[in-house]
Amino acid sequence: MPIGTIHWLPQRSNKTGRKFILTSGRLRLMILLSALFLTGIAALFFHIGRVNERTHFTGNRQNELSLYRGELYQLSERIMNLRSQLEEITTREKQVLVAGAGLNLDFSELIPQDAFITEPPGDNMFSYIDDLEMEIMLMERLADAELMAYDSLACYLMGKDSELARIPSIWPVDGIFVSNFGPRIDPFTGAVRIHKGIDLACISGTPIYAPADGVIVFVGWTGGWGLNIVVRHSDRISTRYAHCSAACTVVGQEVTRGDLIARVGSTGRSVAPHLHYEVLINGVQVDPEDYILREGSDSAIF
Predict the structure, then answer these.
(1) Which residues form the domain of 205?
(2) What SS3 state is found at 215?
(3) Which residues, listed in sequence order, are joined to residue 220 by a DSSP beta bridge?
(4) What's the whole-number mean pLDDT along residues 184-191?
(5) Do 203 and 221 belong together in one domain?
(6) Does one domain contain both 134 and 215?
(7) Would 107 be classed as within a structural domain?
(8) Would 202 disulfide with which of 44, 108, 175, 253, CB 3.0-4.6 Å?
């Protein structure tokens, strides 16, 4: 049954008006359609909100993942630096063991031979983390082995201060390393010969310092060595300094590490000013680099 009438009156007079009879059924239909419309609007806004929330969450997630990847990459670089430091420690430790205790221990098997991954982590970060953990485990293994070696060396070296002071463990001159110990091409003949020392290029007159305590046992001219000096540090260790321009010591003089003993020159069989430096163990030349532990005439491990 009708419950009211709605009249629509046009603004223009040439158009006729209309009337709409409102019944209870039509009213309920209008209310239902209005409710459906409002519900649809609310659902649309809710959906847009959820999409924006998911987009924001996904963006934050991506930012977090990028941050984690960056931190993992920085951690891998720190591990690589630690590996380099441990390898340097291993090298110096071997020199200490050789020079101080005559022990030639090989740590090469403890150092990973394969280069550690240097690329940033990709999507599989768990695999990257496993690689980092493996590298850390290897570094810990190497560090433990070095610690044990240092403990053994410390026990051996206790009470041997006077002996350590007679080990030639510093560079005798500040110069440029130009030739190492072992086979090389002779600059005069072009033939391969065994070089029984190391050569350090310097300006003529550069001071030469004693690398350890000892006694001067020879000062003079000898064939291709030119003016050379020999220092006896112990019953089994001696050092030779060849091609000198001047000697600042005499036979029988006692010297301590860092004392001036001669000056660089180019006497004897030499093509330019340099120091030919030898370390002799029981009269046999060995590689001096196995005994040099620190740079400079005033720096030594012993």
Answers:
(1) 169-290
(2) strand
(3) 228
(4) 73
(5) yes
(6) no
(7) yes
(8) 175
The count of structural domains within the chain is 3
Closest CA to 286 of 209, 204, 201, 194: 194
Helix (H, G, I), strand (E, B) or coil at 19: strand
Higher pLDDT, 230 or 30: 230
Same domain, 126 and 34: no
The CATH number of the domain where 232 resides is what?
Answer: 2.70.70.10
Question: What is the spatial distance between Cα 282 and Cα 14, in angstroms, rounded to a whole number?
Answer: 133
Is the CB of residue 214 less than 8 Å from the CB of residue 258? no
Beta strand 182-185 pairing with 192-195: antiparallel
Is the overall model pTM greater than 0.85, yes or no?
A: no
Q: Are 218 and 247 in contact (CB under 8 A)?
A: no
Q: Is there a domain that residue 29 lies in?
A: yes
Averaged pLDDT score across all residues of the chain: 77
Q: For 101-109, which contacts have Cβ atoms below 8 Å and span 24 or more sequence positions?
A: 101/153, 101/156, 101/157, 103/153, 103/156, 105/149, 107/142, 107/145, 107/146, 107/149
Is residue 243 in a domain?
yes
Q: Which residue has the tokens 């001036």?
A: 260
CB 200 within 8 A of CB 274: yes
Which residue among 113, 131, 163 closes a domain?
163
Question: 């240092």: which residue's tokens?
Answer: 150
Evaluate whether residue 299 is within a structural domain.
no
Shortest CA distance to 280 belongs to which of 230, 243, 246? Answer: 230
